[in-house]
Design brief:
Radius of gyration: 23 Å
Oligomer: single chain
Shape: flat
Strand order of the largest sheet: 3-4-5-6
CATH class of the largest domain: Mainly Alpha
Distance between the termini: 45 Å
Structural class: alpha+beta
Number of helices: 6
Largest sheet: 4 strands, antiparallel
CATH architecture of the largest domain: Up-down Bundle
Helix content: 40-55%
Number of domains: 2
CATH topology of the largest domain: Four Helix Bundle (Hemerythrin (Met), subunit A)
Strand content: 15-25%
Length: 227
């Protein structure tokens, strides 16, 4: 707990990065407890647990919630995530440079709408480059990834919106940009990142977990039969 309290965190309400004021904590545990006939604990296993830490941003005075998750039975390292206000994507499985660019873009949403939208357009360009898109401009690169089925057809319109809003941001002196528009574009970019990077990682991780559980169960059954 002391570790996370002393860490530098980002408030995605206003973009402030620094030490936040710790307010409180709540926790959840999944435990396997075996008791004897008298109710005494004879075996205890902590399967997994998750803690939520509530902070207050010293700049905008709004709440920030950070979660810490550990799969104890597998002795995995703790996973930290900003639960509120959400950045919309987890860094797990996402190329570092793409996540950093997306994170930087989101930090500017409360500072300058134009900068945020231009930065989000840049994230889309980085994704296209990372996926090996071919084309003379962003529009052609998006078409290339759709043709290669890297992007599903349903993402085509989202990419069009991201690209157009980025273009509009470059001429923001003529166009009024609203917070709602920025939040929508953030959500679209987050969806693309999740689809291409985070979701495959989570699915593979869950698949591996299920397969390992099946192997463990089978091995246990075989050991019982051999006794």
């Amino acid at each position: 707990m002391e570790y996370i309290k002393k860490q530098v965190h980002t408030c995605f309400h206003c973009g402030n990065t620094g030490l936040l004021k710790f307010i409180g904590k709540t926790e959840w545990k999944d435990e396997d407890i075996a008791k004897d006939g008298a109710g005494n604990i004879i075996n205890y296993t902590l399967i997994e647990h998750e803690d939520w830490y509530v902070f207050e941003c010293p700049v905008c005075n709004k709440p920030v919630i950070i979660s810490e998750y550990v799969l104890d039975v597998a002795e995995t390292p703790a996973e930290y995530k900003t639960e509120y206000p959400t950045i919309a994507v987890s860094p797990i499985g996402v190329p570092k440079e793409i996540y950093s660019a997306f994170e930087a873009a989101v930090k500017t949403k409360g500072i300058d709408h134009s900068i945020c939208l231009l930065s989000l357009r840049r994230v889309l360009e980085m994704i296209c480059k990372e996926k090996g898109a071919v084309g003379k401009d962003l529009e052609k690169k998006i078409d290339d990834l759709i043709e290669k089925k890297v992007f599903p057809p349903m993402i085509e319109d989202a990419c069009w919106i991201i690209r157009q809003m980025g273009n509009d941001a470059a001429h923001a002196d003529k166009i009024t940009l609203y917070s709602y528009d920025v939040e929508q574009v953030i959500g679209y970019v987050a969806t693309i990142i999740d689809y291409l990077y985070s979701l495959p990682y989570r699915v593979e991780k869950m698949k591996t977990k299920i397969q390992e559980r099946k192997r463990t169960s089978k091995k246990t059954d075989e050991n019982k039969e051999n006794k």
